[in-house]
Design goal:
The chain folds into two domains: about 10-250 and about 275-315 and about 375-540, NCX, central ion-binding region (A middle domain of Talin 1); about 315-375. Helix content is about 70%, strand content about 0%. The chain is built from 18 helices and two strands. It has a two-stranded antiparallel sheet. InterPro entries: CaCA_antiporter (IPR051359), NaCa_Exmemb (IPR004837), NCX_ion-bd_dom_sf (IPR044880).
Amino acid sequence: MAFVFSHKEYVLFLNISFLFLLLFVLAAHLGSSPQRGLHLASLHHPLRQDDCDGLRRITDHGALCSYLETHEKACEPRGFVDYLRIFYCTCGGHPLLGYALLVLWLLVLFYLLGNTASHYFCSSLEGLSAVLRLPPTIAGVTLLSLGNGAPDVFSSIVSFAASGVGDVGLSSVLGGAFFVSSVVVGIISISVDSRSVAIDRSSFIRDLCFFLLVLSFLLVILIVGRIGIWGSMVFMSLYVAYVVLVWTGHYSKEKQSELDVPILDGLAVGEDVREGVRSNSNSRVSYCVGWFLYLLEMPLYLPRRLTIPDVSKERWSKPFAVASVSLSPLFLATLWISQSGEVGTAERMTIYLIASSVGIVLGIIAMETTEKSAPPETCLMPWLAGGFLMSLVWSYIIAGELVALLVAIGDIAGISPLVLGFTVLAWGNSLGDLIANTALAVNGGGDGVQIAISGCYAGPVFNTLVGLGLSLVLASVASHPSAIAVPRHRTIFETLGFLVGGLLWALLMLPRRGMKPDKVVGMGLLAIYLTFLCSRLSESLGLMKLGIPFGV
């Protein structure tokens, strides 16, 4: 899943919001003591001993700020920004301002994560698919699913990498799967009710039954509560079985996996503005306004454009290509130093010198081997590999900051990060699926409905097996030979139960109604999801407490 952005106004709003947030944080940093302010931290913090629980027992804003100063270890930020200090110390007695800043930053991070996936990550995947000459079926269930599920995958990996918040990654994967398989399928079913379009029975049953099988394996893992490296690898390898199953059952008439259309359409930030600059060049006022708007779009666009190699035809630019291969080694070196704790001055200078030398060499090679008018047609693999790597790095950083922000919001509002993962993170990562799949079903005819419904089940299968599976594998490797503890909160079991309930409803009702999605199927799925939301809200407010023996 990834976002599809088509409105310049939204992008412009986010860039202005980012500039405002940046200026606010810098002003607060300059106005504070040298020891306080912006915190550059590793994404891999040890588990905080009390998770800042003391904050919830204090009401005075001055005391809250003092608590943070005296409990630095317990309240240490998990990301690059110290959100708790900004909220309690910088905003002080203005909580509405603090919440507004956090919400704006949340929107910016969601945009960055989705836009990085759609613009850069998916572009590299398309190129790799063409260079490797993957069959459409294999490309559809591997690269296409990876492109669409990139935000969910990165959020899950980062959550498990940051010790103590693995429940956020697990809840976001399950919450996203539940949202897509219930809300998105439900809305699609209601939208196409009057058209009486029938979907392919065998493909539907295959995808849904395999998803139920995956959830059964996950339930066993949750009940056991621990998993080792071999168990993690077996769980992740189930996706290979799914790919083989899809490939063997592929019909030549199906167009679902054709990659003639880009994996994800995205807005090339700045393209429309530059066109407007050229078309309005006769008017000096319009020209200046156009360039001003173009510059306003740069804050969120330029850093990634200058560090991610991009050889797509529609966005090819030789200056940017040369700059990206030259600056990406320095960017990686800076990240490595920031994540490595204390690094001596001599070691720091050596790392920067090596990175600069590599960047200069790569820049010269790019300058001499590329044309200004078109991207290179030969030796594409190094370019695509570089774009793939750097888009991975950016996505990982953004996802890490997103998880850190959600954990901080949970600390501030007294809401479990687990609940935020099921709702806010899952909704944000699945919003693109809702928009894209619904539009495809409504406007794409019978094939569009088939593709949209199939994607609502194949996508969650990928996110669960690859996103969650890879997270478990990496965490198991890090703790080997010891097994890792899997989050076993009661809410996870409840969500899993509701998710299975929605799948069983679709599995029972669609065949009974001639494989035609309609209002009965859709309303049932939406009712199941709304019941889940009501139960979560009731528990959060303390009105209801379900007793599930597996929970902690």
